[in-house]
Design goal:
Helix content is about 45%, strand content about 30%. By secondary structure, it is of the alpha+beta class. It has 4 domains: about 35 residues; about 90 residues, conserved putative lor/sdh protein from methanococcus maripaludis s2 fold (Beta Barrel); about 60 residues, RNA polymerase II/Efflux pump adaptor protein, barrel-sandwich hybrid domain (OB fold (Dihydrolipoamide Acetyltransferase, E2P)), CATH 2.40.50; about 220 residues, no CATH class. It starts with a helix and ends with a strand.
Amino acid sequence: MAEEKKFKRGWVKNAAIIFLAVLLVLTFFSNTIMNRSLPEVAVQYTEAGTITAKIRGSGTITANSSYNVTIDQSREVSSVMVKVGDSVSAGDLLFTLADSESDELKAAREQLDALTLQYRIDSINAGAAYSDEQKAIAEAQEALNKAIAQRAQCGSSSPSEIAELKEEIAELKEDLNRLQNRQAETGYGTVTESALKAQERAIEDKEIEIRNAEPDQLAALQLDLERLQEDYTAMRQAARYGEQIADTESELAQAQAELEQLTANAGSLAEADAAVETAQKTLNDLIYQLEQKKKVDGSITNLNLEAARKKIAEQQRIVDELQAESVGAEIKAPMAGIVTSINVAAGQTTAADQPLAVIEAGDLGYSVSFSVTAAQAKTLRLGDPAEVSGYYWGPEIKAVLSAIKNDPDNPGKNKILEFAVSGDEIAAGSQLSLAIGQKSADYPTIVPNSAVRNDSNGDFVLIIEAKSTPLGNRYIARRVDVQVQAKDDVNSAVSGGITTSDYVITTTSEPVEPGMQVRLVEN
């Protein structure tokens, strides 16, 4: 029993010794184990130094001037002669329009008819004392209506169709003349099939005669045979030309008949237009004469009719102008530049005053702009050159500060820097990054650019604070808000709650937040 108690006391003693030893080891190595799990950071002392500041920004290249190509009628586009990106000169053909009336012309005619009809009604209502004049006006109006109806029934033919047919007829005449000349060169005119048969029989007879002739007759007879054969060949060639001549004459006759029909259509339409114009003039003259008569009477109504007549005359002028523009139109470039957009395709109908295309006038230059702080803008002068950054291919691009303006999005605090840019291959819509200014200055606190961070509250740095513990120093990251006064490609000059004796964190092995414990990079 005594030995058993002694054994139990020994076991308890040994267990206590082992527990205390393990506790001592864990306490000794706990700091090392914890440090291995902490983010590793690189730090650097702040220091005084010099900053050569550059202001950087980027913007979209825009042309200083652009032109919207428009027309004042809705017309069908026949063909589009350019595409986006093409360079054009002033006068280059952009679009061709179909020979068709526009909605504006139809509306203008309807308005003219309405004004004329209303004028007639007003004239009739003005007083029955002018019944004879009103009757003449009514007859003239009826004649005008008939002329308009007859014009609507006339056939139509476009100038382009007539021109194409005339060109085809000219080509057929040339072909016919060439064939006739070639036929004449054969020595024969029209050769009939019976004539060819007779020539063939003559050749056969001569061959029989040669076979039956004496040897001393053969040479002369052979010459006769060769002449007959040569004549036969020429006759067949002439006959072939004759067939081609007949076909060409048939085609020519058909084309000429078509031309006569088209010309007659065009002539009838022109005559119908002239008849409408004459009838309209007669009506206008009668109305004018009645108006003059009423003026003698001093009627106030006549003043209204005079105003209405002027409206009719003005509307007639509009119709005439639209009518003149409705047949065969070409839209040409008003200026040199680059086509940046095309808003219609062949077969589509344009809308009045809607841009068909946009031309950027590269000759007037390009510009790019971006916003900076007012303090940054104060360091610059108009005419300062800027460096183009991030552009390593193609021809050189130059940029010069051309204007400093207020920033409408942040007035009082920011300025807009506008640069004139130039180069052989500048294109509107491209992005351009610029750097300007090389003002050197000394600052009391400079940190690496990698040390400066920012969030919604502004710029800040993380500094290291050391706390002494029984197990050694612990390092805590603390946020310090700063203001960046200037920066170059390496360092930033900052102000705020930071001194030259602070350690700032420059890089981290993983994200670090203020208040976190970190470990320093081991050198």
